[in-house]
C-alpha cells in the first residue's frame, strides 16, 4: 500500500479545503490511492467524518474523492466553510458562501445524499433564490432523509419550492426543518409519507395549508411550530396516530388549538396570548409545559382531570390574577414540577398557596420554583414576621429535591420554604438561590475584571434574602436535609 507526496497543494479556505479544481485532472498532482478496503466500507468511513475533514481527505485520496462526490452529510454555513472577513478578502462573506456551496453541490453526484443543512445568516436577497432552488433541486431526491434550511435574516422573502417534494421525490424525508421562509403546500402536493419530525420556525404558512400538509404525513411523530404568525387556528388531525410530541410557541395570532391526535404524550405551549385549548384524548399525556399568562390558575382549576399519567409539569406565568384551590391527588403520578413566576405585573403573589401542589401530587420527587424579579412587590418578612403562617403537616414520602431560584425576603416565600423543610419528611436537598447568584462575576465580568453593576433594588434584596435565610430558615432545617445557599457575588457589597 504505497503513498506519494503531492507536488501541488489543493486550495484551502481558512481550514476547509474546497475542490475548486478536480485534483484528478492534469499530471501535476499525485494522490494517495487510499487503503485497500472495499469501496463501500471506505464510503461508510468517510460518511462519519466532519465535512471539513471529509473535504481534506477527498483532496489527497482517490478513494475518498469518489466518496466525496456522493458524501451523505453536507452541512453548509459560514462556520463549516471557514469563512470570515480575513479569508474572504475584499469579497463579501455572503457572496463567497454562495460561490463555495454552488461549486460543491455542482460537483456532487446527487447520489447517496442523506442529510443537507443550509444556514444563511446574512447577505440574502431575492436574486439569490435561484441558488437555493438549484441546491434543493440537487438534494431533494429519493434517499434524502433530513433537510434543514435556515435563513437567519428573518425577513428573507424566500418561497420554498414545494413542487420539489411531489412525485415521490420527498418520500424518503424523515426530518424537515424550515426557518424564515414561506411554505405553501397544496392539495396536489400531498405530504411526505416518511416524515417523522416537522420543525417550522418563523415560517409563513396558514393553518389551512398546514392541515393540508399534515393530512398527508401519517408517519409524523414530532410537530414543532415556533413564531409562525399566520396560523390562527391549529388543527391536528386524528389520522396522526404516531404523533407523540406537540410544541407550539410564539405564534402571535394563534387563537385555537384543536388536537385530535390520540397518542400525544408531550405537549408544550408558549406565548403571551391566551389560546383556547382542546387537547382531545389526554390519557397518554405524560409531559405538559405551559408558558402564558394565568398558566398556574389553569393548572390548578382548568387543567383536565383526565391526565392521570402526567409525570412532568412545567408552568411559566408573567401574570396571575386569581387563586384557585387544588383537588387532592389530582396528579397521582407527577414526579417533576417546575413553576416560574417571573416578571409578574399583577399584585404580590401568595407563594404559600403553591403548597397545595404537594397535596395534589403524592408521587412528586423534584420541585423547582423560579421567582426572580427585578422589583419585589411582596411584603418583606422583616416588615411583618410576627405571625408567620403555618400549614398542617403533609405526609409526603417522595419529594426529595427542592430548588428556589430568585429567593427573596418575601414573607409568603419564607413561609413556603419553612413549610417544605418542616413538613415534608422525605426531603433530602434544599437549594436557595438569591437574585444575584445567577449573575455571578464569572459570567458578567467586564474588561476590568469586575462584575458589571446591578440594579440597586435587586442588589439590596439579594442581601435581605441571605439575612432571611440565616434568621428564619437555616436554624430550623433538619440535619437530614442538605441546605445549599447561593449568595450574591462578594464584589456586590452593600
The gist of it:
It comes from Urochloa decumbens. The longest helix is centred in the C-terminal third of the chain and has 18 residues. 23% of the residues lie in helices and 19% in strands.
Explain what this protein looks like in three dimensions.
The protein is α/β, with parallel strands linked by helices. The chain is built from twelve helices and 20 strands. Strands 3-4-5-6-7-8-10-12-14-15-16-17-18-19-20 form a 15-stranded parallel β-sheet, with helices on one face. Helix 6 links the parallel strand 4 and strand 5. It starts with 11 loop residues before the first strand and ends in an 8-residue tail after the last strand. The N terminus is likely disordered.
CA-atom Rg in angstroms: 29 Å
Number of separate helices = 12
Backbone shape: elongated
Percent range for β-strand residues = 15-25%
Give average pLDDT, whole number.
80
The strand order across the widest sheet is 3-4-5-6-7-8-10-12-14-15-16-17-18-19-20
Largest beta-sheet characterization:
15 strands, parallel
Strand runs, count: 20
SS-based class: alpha/beta
Question: End-to-end span in angstroms?
Answer: 73 Å
Question: In which range does the helix fraction lie?
Answer: 10-25%
Q: Report low-confidence residues grouped into runs of 5 or more.
A: 1-33
Organism: Urochloa decumbens
Domain At1g61320/AtMIF1 LRR: 104-489
Biased composition (Polar residues): 1-17
Protein name: F-box domain-containing protein
Amino acid at each position: 500500500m504505497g503513498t506519494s507526496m503531492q507536488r501541488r497543494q489543493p486550495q484551502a479556505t481558512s481550514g476547509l479545503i474546497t475542490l475548486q479544481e478536480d485534483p484528478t485532472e492534469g499530471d501535476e498532482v499525485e494522490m494517495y490511492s487510499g487503503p485497500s478496503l472495499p469501496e463501500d466500507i471506505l464510503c461508510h468511513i468517510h460518511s462519519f467524518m466532519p465535512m471539513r475533514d471529509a473535504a481534506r481527505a477527498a483532496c489527497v485520496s482517490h478513494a475518498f474523492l469518489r466518496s466525496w462526490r456522493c458524501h451523505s452529510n453536507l452541512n453548509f454555513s459560514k462556520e463549516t466553510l471557514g469563512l470570515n472577513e480575513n479569508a474572504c478578502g475584499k469579497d463579501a462573506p455572503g457572496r463567497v458562501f454562495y460561490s463555495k456551496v454552488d461549486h460543491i453541490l455542482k460537483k456532487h453526484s446527487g447520489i447517496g445524499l442523506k442529510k443537507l443543512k443550509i444556514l444563511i445568516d446574512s447577505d440574502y436577497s431575492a436574486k439569490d433564490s435561484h441558488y437555493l432552488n438549484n441546491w434543493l433541486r440537487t438534494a431533494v431526491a429519493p434517499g434524502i432523509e433530513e433537510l434543514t434550511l435556515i435563513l437567519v435574516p428573518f425577513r428573507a422573502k424566500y418561497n420554498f419550492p414545494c413542487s420539489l417534494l411531489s412525485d415521490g421525490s420527498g418520500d424518503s424525508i424523515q426530518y424537515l426543518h424550515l426557518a424564515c421562509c414561506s411554505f405553501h403546500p397544496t392539495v396536489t402536493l400531498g405530504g411526505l409519507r416518511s416524515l417523522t419530525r416537522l420543525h417550522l420556525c418563523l415560517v409563513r404558512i396558514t393553518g389551512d395549508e398546514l392541515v393540508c400538509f399534515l393530512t398527508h404525513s401519517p408517519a409524523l411523530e414530532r410537530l414543532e411550530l415556533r413564531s409562525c404568525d399566520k396560523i390562527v387556528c391549529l388543527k391536528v388531525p386524528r389520522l396522526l396516530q404516531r404523533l407523540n410530541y406537540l410544541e407550539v410557541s410564539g405564534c402571535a395570532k394563534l387563537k385555537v388549538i384543536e388536537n385530535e391526535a390520540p397518542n400525544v404524550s408531550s405537549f408544550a405551549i408558549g406565548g403571551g396570548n391566551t389560546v383556547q385549548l382542546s387537547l382531545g384524548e389526554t390519557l397518554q399525556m405524560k409531559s405538559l409545559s405551559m408558558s402564558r399568562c394565568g398558566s398556574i390558575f389553569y393548572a390548578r382549576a382548568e387543567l383536565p382531570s383526565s391526565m392521570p399519567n402526567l409525570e412532568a409539569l412545567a408552568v411559566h406565568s408573567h401574570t396571575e390574577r386569581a387563586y384557585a384551590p387544588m383537588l387532592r391527588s389530582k396528579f397521582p403520578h407527577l414526579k417533576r414540577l417546575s413553576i416560574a413566576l417571573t416578571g409578574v405585573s399583577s399584585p404580590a403573589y401568595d407563594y404559600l398557596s403553591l403548597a397545595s401542589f404537594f397535596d395534589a401530587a403524592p408521587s412528586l420527587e423534584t420541585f423547582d420554583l423560579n421567582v426572580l424579579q427585578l422589583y419585589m412587590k411582596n411584603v418583606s418578612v422583616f416588615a411583618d414576621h410576627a405571625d408567620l403562617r403555618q400549614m398542617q403537616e403533609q405526609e409526603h414520602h417522595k419529594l426529595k429535591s427542592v430548588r428556589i431560584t430568585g429567593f427573596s425576603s418575601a414573607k409568603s416565600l419564607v413561609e413556603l420554604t419553612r413549610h417544605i423543610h418542616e413538613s415534608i419528611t422525605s426531603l433530602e436537598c434544599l437549594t436557595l438561590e438569591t437574585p444575584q447568584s445567577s449573575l455571578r462575576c464569572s459570567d458578567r465580568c467586564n474588561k476590568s475584571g469586575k462584575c458589571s453593576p446591578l440594579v440597586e433594588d435587586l442588589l439590596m434584596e439579594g442581601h435581605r434574602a441571605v439575612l432571611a435565610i440565616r434568621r428564619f430558615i437555616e436554624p430550623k432545617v433538619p440535619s437530614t436535609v442538605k441546605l445549599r445557599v447561593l449568595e450574591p457575588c462578594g464584589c456586590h457589597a452593600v
